[in-house]
Amino acid sequence: MAEYLVELYVAQGDHAAARHQVALAERAGADLSREGRAVRCLRSIFVPEDETCFLLYEADSAHLVAEAVRRAGLRLEHVSAATTSVAGVPETPVGTTKGTRMTSTSSTTGTGTSSPGPDLTELRDKQQKVWSSGDYNKIAALTVPVSEHLVDHVGVGPADRVLDVATGTGHVALAAARRGAEAVGIDYVPALLEIARRRAAAEDVAVDLTEADAEHLPHDDASFDVVLSAIGVMFAADPDAAGRELVRVTRPGGRIGLASWTPEGFVGGMLRTVGAHAAPPPGARPATRWGTEEVVAGLLGEGVGDLRSQTATVTQRFTDAGAFADLFLTYYGPTFAAASRLDDQGRAALRADLVALAESHDRREGSGHLVCDWEYRLVTATRR
Ligand SMILES: C[S@@+](CC[C@H](N)C(=O)[O-])C[C@H]1O[C@@H](n2cnc3c(N)ncnc32)[C@H](O)[C@@H]1O
Questions:
Q1: Structural domain tally of the chain?
Q2: b/e for 349-358, b at 16 or more Cβ within 10 A?
């Protein structure tokens, strides 16, 4: 029998939820064994910081493992062939780098050991390089509707002074400026800000675009009526610092509005797929935590009230799943940077998993091309 590694999502790194998932998986495996099917759950490893639980199975096929997980009523993220040493320490698994994450940051379910605090400055610098790689401008067009939705939802108007945190090529700042607001955008990738400036010039709208770090905003306390971020601040290396800064620069009575990919949605799945092939740097927390209302409430803290959230989707269309995978492997910083750390075989395996992900979300409904909905969460709050 071969060994397989299964990845499950565990919201907010909840230990009780992880224990429950493992119990369900073990019961379903035992039921299948009793029916004469060769599948057994050997071991579980919980990584709270990554909101992920890994199950190590022994089985005749990956298909059988997938059946065991589905029978347990669990949502399967990923099954990979694996190899382990007799001592139980994972060696390099076949076709995935998950083993690296398990040995470096894992804690066994229920024990909850914590690792020493990561160097967030080093992490931030690494992530800045990731967002400077590829060519995000080739991807940015896909998410224009998310920014428009955010600006509409918060009700930005001509009297507002608006900050767009992690503006990238300027979607939110431009949308606010078009509504007559005084718009300011910051990002830590100069090349993206340059594109934003060209867009503002082409539209003849005034937007102040400054290179800055979301974790250390160069603005005075209470200096904005509205502070927004569309799928931007969620990528800050130090989410606690970024959350504090959003609140600090918003005036009392002012509004904060955030759009973030959800862990359960398409992009959440894509980021996990990428992380499974090329382990994220130590200390990196899943960006999609910002796609959970409770997490954002915690990050914004007592300085805000009237926090509300809702989910929405943005529909994407690609010629086929391969076209989606190639676009992201070539231009999207996180995918591009991960792929460039892999050898040819590793890149092919990552591409195959991205294709499988896109196909699993396809609702083309006879349209002849791939159609999928990417879920994000809109959170709004008022500064006290
Ligand atoms: C997915 S892009 C989104 C860009 C833009 N908000 C949009 O809607 O198109 C993420 C952006 O976050 C920026 N970013 C991530 N962490 C940041 C930080 N700590 N400070 C400033 N910008 C950051 C990246 O440079 C990148 O432009």
A1: 2
A2: bbbebbbebb
> 215 in ligand 1 pocket by Cβ < 6 Å?
yes
Q: Is the CB of 245 under 6 A from ligand 1?
A: no
151 CA from centroid of ligand 1 (Å): 17
Q: What is the pLDDT of residues 96-139, one digit of tens each?
A: 323 222 222 222 233 333 345 678 999 999 999 999 999 999 99
235 lines ligand 1 (CB under 6 A): yes
> Could you tell me if residue 112 is inside a domain?
no
User: What is the rounded distance in angstroms from the CA atom of residue 164 to the CA atom of residue 205?
Assistant: 15
Cα 186 to ligand 1 centre (Å): 9
Q: Specify the CATH number for the domain of residue 24.
A: 3.30.70.3090
Q: What are phi and psi of 162, to 5 degrees?
A: -120, 135
Q: Is the four-CA dihedral 129, 134, 137, 140 of positive or negative sign?
A: negative
Among 115, 117, 97, 96, residue whose Cα is nearest residue 106:
115
Instruction: Give yes or no: residues 155 and 83 share one domain.
Output: no
Specify the 3-state DSSP secondary structure of 135.
coil
Ligand 1 lined by 288 (C-beta under 6 Å):
no
pLDDT band at 78 (very low <50, low <70, confident <90, very high): low
Q: Which amino acid is located at 102 in the chain?
A: M
* Residues 92, 138 share a domain: no
Q: What is the pTM of this model?
A: 0.76
188 touches ligand 1 (CB under 6 Å): yes
What pLDDT does residue 74 have?
77
DSSP string, 229-276: EESSGGG-S-HHHHHHHHHHTEEEEEEEEEEEE-SSSHHHHHHHHHHH
Among 105, 137, 152, the domain boundary falls at 105
Q: Is the CB of 238 under 6 A from ligand 1?
A: no
d(CA 213, CA 216): 5
| Site to substitute for ligand 1 among 120, 122, 126, 128, most atoms within 8 A of C-beta | 128
Is residue 113 assigned to a domain?
no
